[in-house]
Protein: Nucleoside hydrolase
Amino acid sequence: PRKIILDVDTGTDDAVAIAAAINSPDIDLIALTTVNGNRNVEYTTYNTLQVVEYLGADVPVYRGCAHPIAATLDPRRKPGMPYYVSSRPKDGDVHGDHLDIPAPTIKEQDLNAVSFIVDCLMHSDGDITLVPVGPLTNIATALRIEPRIKDKIQEIVLMGGGYKFGNRSPVAEMNIWADPEAAKIVFSSGVKVTACTLDSTHQGANITNEECEQMAKLGTRAGEMCAKFIAKRIWAYHNWDPTQHNGQAPIHDPLAVLAVIDPTILTEVHHTYVDVDFSGGNADGQTICEINFTTQEAHEPNAYMALNADRDKFAKMLLEILAIK
Ligand code: BDR
Ligand code: CA
Structure:
């Protein structure tokens, strides 16, 4: 099995990623680390502990950074900057901050997530993959305080960024937007980075109502829990935009876990140079990819950007993994 540290801002789709990582025989989940993102880190840690306990897993949870590297916790990230305000009606809970499972009794570890990541990697044989599915604050901070971990990380397979899709703004995906400076550090780190972009999850990581119903009937706690969260997402996306999300919803974060198990699930993968905008304007958080930029000014590639995924394989793998008792 592949050793991973799953970095989360749980979140309903993070919860499905956690369940997949716990259940898969091909994954050795060393630890879960939490980060500020969907909600503040106290909340994402609480939610993560909830999921771990509900699934009866023996996985340590480390609490990570409470603030983006360079910005405040102001919802606009930088007070006073122009930012995009959606005119669409919002149901307010698409990402499902509140997880409808019992409160946790287990506790997080004493050590903070960044110290854990550094220590764990420095004592490893270079066989640990980082799978961040929230803002990249913990990973970037770890790289900053101990640059030698660069040679210890096997690879980074993340959920984040976009090429033609945005969700926090027309050009920015949430995880990158929430801490673009951190994203810049990670993309320019020299570590092998594969990004499951919003393009890939919106096109290739959808789960339909029928698949969700199958999931609920798998006869496992993981299946029942994930079906509950996915049903909520399908409902929310449908209310949001029925023409695009009729009876299905993107379940972003498990795609990164499944891509570690089987990289062929990712399609339209471009080895390209990715820059991240954090100039404080309308492009804040954009992942600028040199995919169709083939002039002499183009840079050396620094990431594998997956723009699509095999949707049928995504659903099949997820159902198979969640069926494991
Ligand atoms: C990402 O944003 C988060 O809210 C989701 O959990 C996912 O990681 C999608 O843009
Ligand atoms: Ca997430």
